[in-house]
Here is the input.
Amino acid sequence: MPARSSASSRCGRRSTSTDSTGSRPRSSLRSDEAAPVTTDNELRLDPLTLEWVAIVGQRQARPNLPSEGCPFCVGGLEAPEPYTVRAFENRWPAFGPGAPIDPDGAAAHATGFRALPARGAAEVVLYSSDHTGSLATIGLDGARAVVDCWAERTEALLARPEIEYVLVFENRGELVGATISHPHGQIYAFGFLPPVPRREAEVAAEHGCSLCETVPAEVVTATRIVREGGGWVTYVPYASGYAYGTILAPRAHVAGLPELDDPGRDELAAALVDVVERYDRLFDGEMPYLMWVHPGVHLHVHFAPLLRAAGLQRFVASGELGSGTLSNPVPPELAADALRGTL
Here is the structure.
């Protein structure tokens, strides 16, 4: 049965742009913290790779931390009323609304310097009103509410003519540059298909869906499985580029979050709670990580922790960036065994 709900009922969504009078929302924070900035960012084409780069200079002016209180706690700037899960437009967006762009056409005729408006959207999703919470502690109902919100915002954003791809993600911890510790993630809506999901789509078009083959094979092999419950499987990829990195994937072929039925959303919520709890137990503390959700071919979730051992950060070095080849210091089989042993 298809999942129910609306963006307003599940996400408590509110625009941070202007109200019906054209005025900006006000708050007790300083004006430079409260006011959204204009969206004049641009995409510039790298002539070496013909890949687009978002130039978002205005984000350099955003405050690292609010001057007083937490803007995500109830009563704060972004959460004036009680909430369970809440979504709103980022005040310092990388992408903004506008007419659709044609990045493929611009790249095909690339001579000299090429730039386009950075069309799209940038939103914030608050996971819980509990400032000290996380995906590991908000429970199955809380995580399910987050999944519903992700799905609803994805569907709504994809309905806009200028949106080509929607990426849900989370940057957790000071090591990854998170400026506010309140549990939250973000959503970027792109006016073009970014390189990584584009490559996944190209591989699927040429060879078929790799996850439809890989997930059952990982279950049979078992050495890299972290959790196998219901319709979702958590495993350390055979060629993981990150120490203790994991993929969460449904057994069934599902393209995106909006297409997940109720059982599928429940199972994804359980898998999210489980894997973050395992990460936090691995080194006896909150694990800083990068998380992103890849829809498009076969929906899946990536987790890339930033620690390779207790207190030791895993840095991506110049040899990796320069070559495009990651080096993982922890064999995936050992990483999976360690994560299995945490619960």
